[in-house]
């Protein structure tokens, strides 16, 4: 994974002038140290205002103090010396400097959350390192040994039930069989996923595997309400991505009249009036979309090889480069009856509410200077 270029960089050469920020090598989650433990160990020298990943390796961090003298004290006590509070680990430390923000287009620089709690969308949950590196390798080997179906820009595999892109639904009467044994462990772990509440007994029976080449994304959509139950799980492997979410307010959205192939992320069919949020999905992380986040927020992945995004935490601007491919495993439960969700504006199972919304939009669009664009509910499903 070639994930981030932090706004913090370490001094090079002989220059190592004190700053409030320390670049600490041989330290991080990949070597058994959580950010909380690191903050606690360095906090004895002064107030720590943040601990951040320096890169994608998990073995280097940036420790930010509020005062330069606290950073100097930590540097003197810990650089190339064992730290008792971190199991005697010897860390290699340099002072870190903050690079100025690059000048980029305002639509490109956009805040991105690392945690679902920071995202603030009800029903969206994210668990990092849901599977191990070895489990990830086994999953990829299994699907690479099976036949892929080629779409226009990516390849897919379907298990349990085939997703029909023409209708954006499934044929519930045509079961392809049980889900493959190589995902049995994942299905078991899903049962204890946060956010399920009292619905742990709902076993997933449909799996779509998507392979996205570098630069290929996902058009904005909501998974069809009538096709799948509330809980949708998406496991990211092989590479990272930024997933964005859009919420269209009442009166600015209606169901599509255009075909799937006519719709893309910059389409005029998408209203420009929406709330926009984003979250970083690293490899081996599992995303759960449920409730409002599943039924009312469009999700998509931009068609770009590099995203310049503004991180929510103080690290600031980062260039997130997509890997050669990303493979997602999306687990769903095929719905057995109509959807009765409270998000009727987006629900294809409740046509009377949908038709009323369409009529409202038509009336609004006939008013001078008040024309509202039509936005799709589903395009290419994850």
Automatic annotation (TrEMBL):
One of its GO terms (biological process) is demethylation. Gene3D superfamilies: 3.30.70.330, Alpha-ketoglutarate-dependent dioxygenase AlkB-like. Residues 203-335 form the Fe2OG dioxygenase domain. Pfam families: 2OG-FeII_Oxy_2. GO terms for molecular function: demethylase activity; nucleic acid binding; oxidoreductase activity. Belongs to the alkB family. This is 2OG-Fe(II) oxygenase superfamily. It comes from Musa troglodytarum.
């Amino acid at each position: 994974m070639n994930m981030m270029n932090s706004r913090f960089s370490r001094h090079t050469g002989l220059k190592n002038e004190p700053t409030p920020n320390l670049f600490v090598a041989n330290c991080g989650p990949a070597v058994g140290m959580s950010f909380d433990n690191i903050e606690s160990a360095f906090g004895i020298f002064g107030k720590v205002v943040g601990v951040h990943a320096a890169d994608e390796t998990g073995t280097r961090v940036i420790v930010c103090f509020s005062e330069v003298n606290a950073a100097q004290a930590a540097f003197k006590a810990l650089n190339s010396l064992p730290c008792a509070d971190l199991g005697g680990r010897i860390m290699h430390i340099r002072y870190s400097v903050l690079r100025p923000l690059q000048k980029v287009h305002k639509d490109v620089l956009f805040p991105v959350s690392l945690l679902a709690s920071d995202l603030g969308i009800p029903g969206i949950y994210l668990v990092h390192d849901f599977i191990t590196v070895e489990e990830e390798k086994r999953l990829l080997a299994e699907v690479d040994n099976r036949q892929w179906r080629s779409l226009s820009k990516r390849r897919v595999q379907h298990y349990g039930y085939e997703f029909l892109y023409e209708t954006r639904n499934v044929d519930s009467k045509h079961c392809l069989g049980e889900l493959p044994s190589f995902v049995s462990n994942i299905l078991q772990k899903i049962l204890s996923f946060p956010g399920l509440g009292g619905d742990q007994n709902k076993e997933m029976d449909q799996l779509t595997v998507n392979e996205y080449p570098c630069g290929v994304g996902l058009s904005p959509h909501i998974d069809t309400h009538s096709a799948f139950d509330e809980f949708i799980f998406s496991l990211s492997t092989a590479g990272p991505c930024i997933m964005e979410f859009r919420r269209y307010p009442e009166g600015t959205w209606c169901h599509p009249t255009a075909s799937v192939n006519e719709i893309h992320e910059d389409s005029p069919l998408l209203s420009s009036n929406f709330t926009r949020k984003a979250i970083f999905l690293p490899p081996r992380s599992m995303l759960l979309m449920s409730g409002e986040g599943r039924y009312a927020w469009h999700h998509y992945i931009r068609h770009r090889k590099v995203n310049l995004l503004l991180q929510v935490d103080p690290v600031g601007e980062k260039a997130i480069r997509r890997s050669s491919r990303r493979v997602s495993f999306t687990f769903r439960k095929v719905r057995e009856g109509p959807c009765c969700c409270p998000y009727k504006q987006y629900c294809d199972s409740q046509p009377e509410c949908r038709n009323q919304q369409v009529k409202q939009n038509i009336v609004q669009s006939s008013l001078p200077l008040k024309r509202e664009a039509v936005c799709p509910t589903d395009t290419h499903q994850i």
